[in-house]
Amino acid sequence: MAASKKPAASAGKPSPTTGQDQVLEFLRRLEHPLKEEIEEVRRIILSVDPAITEHIKWNAPSFRYEDDDRVTFNLHGAGMFRLVFHCGAKAAKRAGKQPLFKDETGLLQWAAADRATIAFASRREVEDSREKLAEVVAKWLAAAKAQ
Question: Was domain 18-89+99-145 assigned CATH 3.90.1150.200?
Answer without folding.
Answer: yes
